[in-house]
Structure formats: structure tokens, C-alpha cells
Automatic annotation (TrEMBL):
Transmembrane segments annotated in the record for this chain: 427-451
Key words of the record: Membrane, Transmembrane, Transmembrane helix
Protein's UniProt name: Histidine phosphatase superfamily
Gene Ontology molecular function: phosphatase activity
Species the sequence originates in: Talaromyces proteolyticus
Highest taxon of source: Eukaryota
Amino acid sequence: MLLALAATIQLSSAETILGAYVFHRHGDRTAKSTPPSSLTDLGYVEVNGHGSYYNSRYIANSSAARILGIESDVVKLSQLAVSSPSDNVLQNSAAGWLQGLYPPAGYASNQTLRNGSKVESPLNGFQLIPISITSTNGGSENSQWLQGATNCQNAESSSNDFFNSDLFNSYQSSSLDLYRSVSPAVNGTFNESQLTFKNAYTIWDLLNVALIHNSTDSNPALADVSTDTMHQLFLLANIHEYNLAYNSTDAVRAISGAVLAGQVLTALNSTITGNGKSKLNVQFGAYGTFLSYFGLAGLPPTNAIFTGIPDYASSMAWELVTNATVSANGDFPSTSDISVRFLFNNGTSSSSADLTPYALFGGSSIEIPWDDFVSQTQKFAVTDQQQWCSLCGNTDGACASNTTSSGSGSSTPAAASSSNGSGISTAVAGVIGAMVTLGVILGLEALILLLGGLRLVKKGASAAALSTNGAAEK
């Protein structure tokens, strides 16, 4: 009994993880410059392996970092939320990752019906976990310029400013010989005029994919692309993409990171206010969102890794932690006893899938009190549609109603606040109209009954009369 109680209550006075939010990049894929991009078998293996790592960290009963009260064998969908943009690389990566997070459960997933028969789940208990589709960054892995997938007008304009900057012009001229040197290896995709710093990422990406998957028999010129050349191309791609994703003097350029920050804040707050009903949130997204968040959260000064493109299967996590005594089926501790810890793993570039903690917002402490995390994140986070529309300067689509509402000084959509000129809302007027119509119908029915000499009788009496007269029909 005591052992059963201990397993159920999970009392702990040491550090406890109350919940977490994970943002993950896809695995190895085909090149962006030859769309549509698709997840490779290697990429499938990579994300599945990283899903298994998160199982060992957050799900497994034996883990010291297991999320409090989370189901360890058969997923409980109310505890887990997974999302991805509408993108085949990212969605398939999420699906492969989930197979590692919650592998087939075997007999544990079988069900016994009321009549005593047992239903064995297909594929050895393969666990079906839905993936929600986010409204931004759709098709990002088929877009050579990730900012275009955000649909944020001001962010696109801000990123375009980089192409007119002194920094861009400096690299555009100084790197020309380097890009021309790889022409034989990429001339099937890029012509001479395109071999410049302006296409830094897609050139490097094409060569990187080719050097992973293609033999020199299919492209002999690959043999002439040295490791040093690839390193230089990668450094230039890092500079190019970081400056398109973040600018310290123009916050809107980092819109992807700002939206992610708002999603993290909302989800973690929901975990707290719901006493841990929601335990693990997972989102798959593009590398540009990583770079945007790195800049907004003040991470680049802590490590140069935060100015570079995260590798395949990279991930970052925000953990809610406490040292207060808590129980899996009890109330959460006070927010004053809860902190947030940020961790990052640079995917396939790392020697393992282990997460490394880093201090956020230019601080020195790995763990940040919840209230401080909230106040620091709110400085740049985008948490609702109206805020996004205002920041992006969009006035069409979903932002059209926000524009109309903000112009009238109200956040309520115009359709919901319209009236008939008498101070009665449209909704209330509709109810009144329905009641008047019903009264008219009832009045007409009474008149017909009176003039026709008809009367109302009980259902049973009516049925009996019909039966007696032999008049009942089907």
C-alpha cells in the first residue's frame, strides 16, 4: 500500500519539473533550391532519436527530470499539445519525433470491451497523436527566404533593408571570388549572376545536402569543394540569415521569435493556472524562428552558437521548475516558488541530444523567477492577433476586422457591436423578433382551432380513437 501511494502521490522536496515547452527543428531534408523539400530517411532517424531523448528526460518513470504527473507509457492527450506549420517537412518531422516521445505501447494500449473481448491496437500499440497546424510560417521549408512565410509586411520590409546596408554590400563584394569558385558544383541550379552573398544560405544549403547524399559520380565537381570552403560558406550563411531574422534597432524583423515568445508565455501560464493539466507543449518550426528568438532574448553575447543557423533536429526548451514540495494530484506551488529554465541543443552538430542550460535576457542565473520571466518576455512577445496586426502593419485578411475595430476605439469586432439604431444590439433584436414571430404563429393556431371546432386532446386518447376507428396509418 505504501509503495502504491508513493507511486501515485510522487511527493518531492527536490527540484520538480512542472511542465515544459519545446521548439524543435526538422531533421535532414532535401535542398530548398530544388522544391518541394522533403524529409529524408536520415532526417526521420534524427528526429525520432531526439524524440526518444525527450522521452528519457520528460516521460520515463526513471528520469529525475520527469514532468510531474505525466503519463509514462500510454499518452494522455490532454497533457500534450503538438503543433507545426502547414509544411510537409516540419509536419513529418513532428510525427517522427512523436514516435520517439511515445513509442508503441504494446499490450499496455489494448482495450477490453464490455462483452469481455480484447482489442489489440495495430502496429504493436502505435500511438496516434494529433498535430495542430499553426497559422504562420506555412510552407517555410519550400521558401528560400523564411521571412516571406511570416506574412508580416513590416518584417519583410525590415529584412529587405539588410540588402541595402553597408554590412551586406561589404560581404557582397568581398565574397564574390569564393562563390565563383563553387560554380562548377552548383551551376545546374545557380547561374553566374546568382552566385553572390545575396544567395548565401541557399548556395550553402544545396552543397551541404549534396555532400551528405550525392556521390561524386553524379557530380564530379563536388570533389573540388573543400572542407574549408564549406566552412567559409557556412559562416557567410550564418551572417546572412541572422541579419535577416533579427536587428537590434528594428524589433519587427524578429516577428517569428516574438510570436514564439508569446506562445511559450501563454502555454506555460496555462500549465500554472490549470494546476498542470497541460504538461508538455511541442512546436516544430524553421531555423529563422530560432535566430529571431536568440536575438530578442539576449542570447548571442553568452555564446557565439546563438548567431549561427541551428543544425538539423536542434531544439530549445523552457522548463517550469520548483524546489517546493509538490504532489502529482495536488495544487501547484505559488508562482513565487516557480522558476523558468531555458535549454538548447544544436541538433546533429552536438555530440549528443542532451540539452544545455543558458541564462536568458543578459542575466547570469540559469533559473529565472516566473514573475521576472513574464515581465522580461512581455517586452517583446506578441500574444494576440491585434498586437500582431499593429506591429506588422497588415490591414487585410484577419487584420481587416482589427483595423475596423481599432478605428472605432473598441476591440470588439464591428459585426458584434452593430445596432439597429434604437440602442438594441443585433443579437438582442434577433431574439425579440423570434419571440414576436412565435406569438403570431400561436395566435393563428388558436384562431384555427376556434373556427374549425377542433380541440386539443391527450396523445394517448387520440391514439386510442384512431385505433378504434381503424384509421391508424404508417
